[in-house]
Amino acid sequence: MKETDGRSADARRRSESSRLAILESATDLVREVGYEKMTIEAIAARAGVGKQTIYRWWPSKGAVLFDSFVAMNEKGAELAALPDTGDIESDLKAVLAATADELNDPMYDVPMRALNTAISNDDTLAAQYAEWLETPMREVKRRRLQAAQDAGQLSPALDLDIAIDLIWGPLLNRWLQRSGPLNSTYTNGIVDSVLDGIRAR
Amino acid sequence: MKETDGRSADARRRSESSRLAILESATDLVREVGYEKMTIEAIAARAGVGKQTIYRWWPSKGAVLFDSFVAMNEKGAELAALPDTGDIESDLKAVLAATADELNDPMYDVPMRALNTAISNDDTLAAQYAEWLETPMREVKRRRLQAAQDAGQLSPALDLDIAIDLIWGPLLNRWLQRSGPLNSTYTNGIVDSVLDGIRAR
Amino acid sequence: MKETDGRSADARRRSESSRLAILESATDLVREVGYEKMTIEAIAARAGVGKQTIYRWWPSKGAVLFDSFVAMNEKGAELAALPDTGDIESDLKAVLAATADELNDPMYDVPMRALNTAISNDDTLAAQYAEWLETPMREVKRRRLQAAQDAGQLSPALDLDIAIDLIWGPLLNRWLQRSGPLNSTYTNGIVDSVLDGIRAR
Amino acid sequence: MKETDGRSADARRRSESSRLAILESATDLVREVGYEKMTIEAIAARAGVGKQTIYRWWPSKGAVLFDSFVAMNEKGAELAALPDTGDIESDLKAVLAATADELNDPMYDVPMRALNTAISNDDTLAAQYAEWLETPMREVKRRRLQAAQDAGQLSPALDLDIAIDLIWGPLLNRWLQRSGPLNSTYTNGIVDSVLDGIRAR
DNA sequence: TACTAACCGAGACGGTACGTCGGGTCTTACT
DNA sequence: AGTAAGACCCGACGTACCGTCTCGGTTAGTA
């Protein structure tokens, strides 16, 4: 995987059409049957490709899945910036509610859960995830928080990386552990508490 | 699973020694080879048990693994209460740092990651996890926060369930997604920010 | 293979119906596609059997094929004796002509050629062939020659094993090497020459 | 195969060094791993040649093997005549014993067995074998028998082709079917019986 | 002397089959 | 009835080769 850069050097002969067919098949299959029941054999069959063509370029089905996520995000052009109405509180509530909606939609839930399973059990994949998917997304979030901090809405001493974890971590954790419903009551509660703190004043 | 309660009627003839051998084998195996490579066949072989004995009492390897966790926690008797020195801030910092240490230890990391994988891909398991493992742990956490709230250290209007998510969610999420190091700098930062909020004042 | 005797001891649980289906599939397939293109996968599929069931009991496709021959010969009851009209010359000519006919018939030619390929490339198989198929057939031939010798039609000093090779060897060799047509002109010529010798008198 | 004759027109540009490397690799490989395990891929790799170069000039691995035999026999110049001491009986015994020795030597046994497997399963190859290898060898044998016949040692009415089959057939058949040891006791017995016949006199 | 076409090594490609592993079911014999 | 053992059908694994197909780079013969 990560065949999207240095590729020209060592893989000039690689078939681009096969690569795309494989990534698309993986995307479709993970949605249809889930991560554990998605097999390399099925990916190859659906893509009209020999199994060896998958094994030649990817070390595991997790890696194929990962690349299919990267490919999807590349097509989606530059990652959209978070909304900025000037009011960090309402913006965050809107973003978190939207995220919760997405996580409730099986269309997104199933593949993302699959990706998380893959990452959770493969260090290499986790590192690539960090570099190619998490970092850009974190950058987008950081930019919005930076703007709020610059505007004096967030504490000037605040470590924005911690802030990001604080805001999105609880939601993602509840999603992954299925430990409760994901709705705006919950997400609004998070934003309120995180912004103002939980200590009595 | 959790076959030790109401089901006692139809399982009077069940071999307790086989059940224990199976749970122990599962515990050992998940540590040695991880969740995905742990097979029911291997569990049965190591436990000196027929495969059918596993299939008779558990619906999936995730369920076996889950029961082995429940069994471990039962042996550890009543879940210890969180420390209460009267200072909620230092207590939380201590607890989170200890949790981080645990999550850094492969002895705990591997099986817990396995359990999370199992939960993430199985609603039934998630429900049982919530009932038998998460709820008690959450209760312990809630009791400490309740004490702090009663002592006037936490905001009186605070929803303690959200507070728990706020405090532990970021750490667990960073652990599961392997998105950064788990150390006391991080955990202290979380506690500080959560307690005081991130909004400029 | 050779599972037809001691079987009861170590394979009481073996499925007789699967065994028969496998042997029959092998017989059919070798006729339809030949030895080299007959695959274990196809045998299993046609027999409605898991591949493992073949691998469990036979070491190679040659071994399966061999057993299917043994099974066919068992069903054919006791090996028929060669005709004995009292005239060894005409009897041998009749038998050799019949054998030539058989070898010209693809129904027999293809599987027998397959069996020979298997034997030629596998010592173990050759030994089993010798014990289970060649020896009984040779015994039948020897009995007819013995009768002729007893009747004073063959040289009393003659080693019957050599005689058998002399009579059948040339025909079988021409068949295997495809070095000429198999017809009664040829077989009669063999019998004449072998009986009377080729030395000028 | 036998591509060195009429085809010269369209093969002027053919690389002779590649051709030789392929034939030599085939010879070596068949000795090392046997016919069934010899692959075109391995031949190409060992010869330092692209697979296409083999597929361009030969239709099957059997054809390559066959050509490697032809090449070996060409190097050995004109096929040596059989010894002629004037005594056909002792000459035949000597030749058959020498042949038996050769067939007992794995150096010769393995490749020749491979060639026979190839022939046995490929009509085209069998025809070419007949033309390029069997016919010349048969001619050599016929010449020696002709001399004996001319000298009055063999029956004047004898069909020499049948005689050749009678003399060499049993030995070759025993070799191919591995149905007994190849030694001079056996070969002498054949010669004696074939020369004098087996009929009582 | 350059042109150009075939040949060459290399190796990716869509496939088929390999021999193995494990899933979940079923049967046998023992407790 | 529950159990250890293990055969069974099945599906997938990851690998080896099949025969075909580019890809650049020689290497002849032709212009």
TrEMBL record, chains A, B, C, D:
Presence of the UniProt keyword DNA-binding in the record: yes
Residue ranges annotated for the HTH tetR-type domain, each copy included: 16-76
Protein origin, superkingdom: Bacteria
InterPro entries: Homeodomain-like_sf, HTH-type_TetR-like_transc_reg, HTH_TetR, Tet_transcr_reg_TetR-rel_C_sf, TetR_C
The entry's keywords: DNA-binding, Transcription, Transcription regulation
Pfam family, one: TetR_C_11
DNA-binding interval(s): 39-58
The name this protein goes by in its record: TetR/AcrR family transcriptional regulator
